[in-house]
Specification:
The complex is a heterodimer. Chain A is mainly α. Chain A is built from seven helices and one strand, in the order ααααβααα. Chain B is mainly α. Helices cover about 75% and strands about 0% of the residues of chain B. Chain B has three helices and one strand; from the N terminus they run βααα. Classes of the chains: A mainly alpha, B mainly alpha.
């Protein structure tokens, strides 16, 4: 058993535990915090795959910025424990067996058809310089389009979350 | 650097497991914020298979796709959470079973 496999298994165990904990917890803040654990462990997996840039962005943007947004909204809305209703029982009865079947099928197909070739670390030039070369050369148009997307998303979020005219007047 | 020998299928299995957990959470959770968290879990599972395939095929474009997925996820989180705030302001609930105005 080599060192990378041990690291993979350790990070993978954190990922699996966090994902199961996300499902088991009833309070949204616990789910969000276990998702942060999953993301941090995934950053470790990216490092094992030689993707340093993606690992850094995963920690800074995903586990940092996006999850702060989630936690902030949970605190802002004072979200409590969820209550179960008829709909959720039907969803558990149908959803869990369906997803178990689906994931077993997926695992079987992957193990059968993908072979066991290795992923060599360091063989891939995951250097930020090479990423930038791709991003600002081959993918320049999608990059600019995503900046427009982000701009539209910011404006949409401001419009949606801002107080209506009458309510805003009352506050002042 | 010393090459590591973790089979590609292990990464794909982990990625598939995370995606499956996201789908299960999306189906069984009734709090709208937890449903959003489950969507993020699905996106993370897909990102892992992107990076694993990028390393396997020596194609750096896979990592750029992960970057784009993160951008879309950020936009989706910003707009979605704003919608959640707007819904909470009008309906006073986060339970998706009680947001049923379109139902007869």
């Amino acid at each position: 058993m080599n060192f990378h496999l041990v690291l993979f298994l350790a990070f993978g165990a954190v990922c699996v535990g966090g994902a199961i904990n996300l499902l088991a917890q009833r309070h949204p803040i616990n789910s969000a915090l276990s998702l942060i654990a999953v993301m941090a462990a995934l950053a470790g997996e990216y490092l094992l795959l030689g993707a340093e840039f993606v690992a850094a962005v995963q920690v800074i943007v995903y586990a940092g910025a996006i999850m702060v947004l989630f936690v902030f909204v949970i605190m802002l809305l004072n979200a409590g424990e969820e209550e179960h209703t008829n709909g959720s029982r039907v969803a558990i009865l149908l959803g869990v067996p369906g997803m178990l079947t689906g994931s077993v099928l997926m695992a079987w197909v992957m193990l059968r058809h993908s072979g066991t070739e290795s992923v060599p670390i360091g063989a891939l030039p995951g250097h930020p310089k090479d990423i930038a070369q791709l991003l600002f050369h081959d993918f320049l148009l999608p990059f600019e389009v995503t900046s427009v997307l982000i701009l539209i998303a910011i404006m949409g979020a401001v419009v949606l979350a801002s107080q209506p005219e009458s309510a805003a007047g009352k506050v002042d | 650097m010393v090459p590591s020998y973790v089979p590609l299928s292990y990464y794909l299995l982990l990625s598939g497991f995370l995606f499956a957990c996201g789908v299960v959470g999306f189906l069984i959770k009734r709090n709208i914020i937890t449903i959003f968290v489950s969507i993020e879990l699905m996106l993370n599972g897909v990102n892992l298979s992107f990076v694993a395939f990028a390393a396997h095929w020596h194609a750096l474009a896979g990592q750029v796709f992960v970057f784009f997925v993160m951008v879309v996820a950020a936009a989706e989180a910003a707009v979605g959470l704003a919608i959640i705030i707007a819904v909470y302001r009008t309906r006073e609930t986060l339970n998706v079973d009680q947001v049923n105005l379109l139902k007869l």
